[in-house]
Amino acid sequence: MDFDACLEAVLGHEGDYVDSPADPGGETRFGITAAVARAAGYTGDMRALPASLARDIYRRQYWDALDADALPAVLRYCMFDAAVNSGVGQAVRWLQHALGVRADGVLGPVTLSALQAADPLSIKSRLVAQRLRFMTTLPHWQTFSRGWSRRIADLLER
Question: Which domains are present in the chain?
Fold first, then answer.
């Protein structure tokens, strides 16, 4: 999958404007939190966050930060979605655990070499399993488990 296809899939789960009191991320639009939007220089009302800015943030802070174009195609959406939800460093650590290399959160030459030698589908399964296991430990699992479970199912099907 390329960036546009992965972004479309992520946005399908994130939706438009949300301000759920149960969500510790607070107010979001297109899945971009107010804190992330502010850090990117946005000063307006979150309900009016431009889709183009959200796209730029997703590209720069998640896709490019992962160097997702260098990943096997079967892992791109999985890694991008994990980075969006849990941060780039955590997504890389899940990948490193799945590969059996030191989990330092840096997608460097050791990780990339191990990735080239591995079966991407097997790595994807292990990565998604770790992520689901992690999600079930979050304090908001009871509140958001249905949506998060659908999101994980989507990852497995793509």
Answer: 3-157 (1.20.141.10)
Backbone angles phi, psi at 118, to 5 degrees: -100, 165
Strand 28-29's sheet: what is its strand order? 17-18, 28-29, 32-33
**pTM of structure:** 0.93
Residue 19 phi/psi, 5° resolution? -140, 75
Residue type for position 19: D
Supply the pLDDT for residue 24.
82
Write down the H helix ranges in 34-119. 34-39, 51-57, 65-66, 73-86, 88-99, 109-117
Please, is 151 exposed, middle or buried when counting C-beta atoms within 10 Å of its C-beta (0-12, 13-18, 19+)? buried
Q: Quick one: DSSP state of residue 62? A: I
